[in-house]
Amino acid sequence: MEEITIQELAQQKPDTYMVIDMRDSAAFALGHIDGAVLIPQEELETNHETLPKDKLLVIYCRSGILSDDVAAKLREDGYQAVNLVGGYVQWLQAKIRREASTQKAAEVEQGLRKKFHRVIFSKFAKAINTYDLIQPNDRIAVCISGGKDSMLMAKLFQELQRHGKFPFELVFLVMDPGYSAENRSIIESNAQMLQIPITVFETNIFDSVYRVENNPCYLCARMRRGHLYNQAKQLGCNKIALGHHFR
Fold first, then answer.
1. pTM of the prediction?
2. From the CB of residue 234, how many other CB atoms can be counted at a distance below 10 Å?
3. Who has the most CB within 10 Å: 136, 213, 227, 228?
């Protein structure tokens, strides 16, 4: 391995790697990756004998360009060294996006507790209680299409779980019936922004109904429902929740 992304780094166990900032001390003081150790480039290239060889050395500079060569030289000397793709700038951008996501999710949740509590959340909770829809230790597949109805339903379930009287589990299930890469990316981005941990599974439904002349929408709906039932069952869910708007 010659390089690692911010996302891949986040999946590593903390005790298995060492993050090294090869910029100068002034840049490091202004901001650096959490847990990074400052070793300026010149020192890293000429005096690296004390670096551990049993850990992954993640090297970064400002943009990931200069650190690519330094990581390559360290590998030649027997170290497990990789370049951080995009360097400090990309890490900082990812951090800003995470913080913006946290803020947006908090705004939505606050809205459900305050501004829209009576008109939305109270009616949702009342329906759950009136019809006894959730029992202790249920595992519910909350099915998300990507539209505002199912996204709102997901946030309502999160709020109910957070303040409910008994424990139950939620799986936020997204079926990809053949979306374009752009459409799927929008769903994933919105879910991340709202802090909804989705589980995505793929089907070929769109291809299957593409040439159907009679009632393709009906067939598509039936197939989507069947796939959702099967996937929910495989994930150990005993109930599914669907969000539909009222007319």
1. 0.66
2. 9
3. 228
